[in-house]
Amino acid sequence: DKLLVGPKLQNDIGQVVTRFRLYKVAMSCDIKQMYREIALHPDDSVYQHIFFRFSPDEPVREWELVRVTFGISSAPFLALRTLKQLVLDEGPSYPRAVQVISQESYIDDLLTGGSSVDEVLQLKEELIALLSSGGFQLDKWASSEPGVFSGMGATPRELGVGGSDSLKVLGLWWDPTPDVFRFKIDVTDDPFTKRGVLSRIARIYDFNGYLGPVTLGIKSFLQQLWMETLGWDDSLPGKFHNQWNRTLDELPLLESVSIPRCILDPTWYRIQFVGFSDASSLGMAAVVYLRAETTFGVSCHLIKSKTKVAPLKTW
After folding, report:
1. Structure confidence at residue 263 as a pLDDT band (50, 70, 90)
2. pTM of the predicted model, to two decimals?
3. Distance between CA atoms of 176 and 26, rounded to whole angstroms?
4. Cα–Cα distances in angstroms (integers) from residue 229 to residues 79, 261, 268, in the given order
5. What are the CA-CA distances from residue 96 to residues 25, 43, 115 (Å)?
6. Domains by residue range for the chain, with CATH
7. Which residues share a beta bridge with 67?
8. pLDDT, tens only, 243-253
């Protein structure tokens, strides 16, 4: 609590994912152990002391952590400010890599791409060169095109291409082979209480609102529980118990939903952003679509939605 947290430097996670959808060929990676590659000034590391022993037979010893450490309140600022300084010092030689680090990253995750495999290959080399000049390594590569990683000496499954399993990128599940976003539902049993309902809602990670119609209904259900003045660990009354049980039975159906990652069509000649909004006594919502007229017809893609339950108090 003595450390200055520093300003928020990380990009908006929803904007990073939306930019990721603009590329025909997608590529993702992360900066390997980014925090541990950044040394602290000795005047600051004195505030990072821990007690530790390597076995129960050893005495407890005091250790000073001389690197940026995960869990310390100032760590995100220190890491991102270091990356920014690297961009200022070395960036002029790597303009495209600078754009990725500045606009297409979230902490240590990079989500980017290009219009062709050759373009992405060039970008990959720029990123490796720029970050290695600061002592950083890139890891956990993935792409929608296997050709991006030819000659890297790893299997397609290790690189996140051509496998049947989705990869987790910024909380979303991305399947590079069909190049779609998917959703995985945690089937952990929660108690049928208000605390259990809230815990379940918190595990549906949907920052761009792709599942808005579903999450709004669940949030409305939680609001009804608040109106019943139930305790956090009180069992749900009969009608709420049955309603929540039906919801839990249907939630796994969300795993069949897929969202195309790429919204770019090279043949489009006219695009529009179309927005809608509506409200009722239960809630309100707004949504934005991308509508594109192409040589093959019209295509529409969901970009973002926001939902909110109606307030209990009215003017």
Report:
1. very high
2. 0.86
3. 8
4. 44, 42, 54
5. 15, 36, 13
6. 13-38+70-182 (3.30.70), 187-315 (no CATH)
7. 39
8. 999 999 999 99
CA angle 123, 258, 188 (to 5 degrees): 110
Give the pLDDT mean for 119-139: 95
The enclosing H or E element of 182 equals strand 180-182
Question: 205-240: per-residue pLDDT in tens?
Answer: 888 999 999 999 999 999 999 888 889 999 999 899
Q: Quickly tell me which residue has 């579903």 as its tokens.
A: 214
3-state secondary structure of 164: coil
The distance from CA 179 to its chain's CA centroid, rounded to whole angstroms, is 16
**Which residue, among 179, 94, 193, 87, has the nearest Cα to 142 in the 3D structure?**
179
pLDDT in the model for residue 158: 43
The residues, any chain, with a CB within 8 Å of residue 119's CB and separated by 6 or more, are 25
Tokens of 77: 């600022």
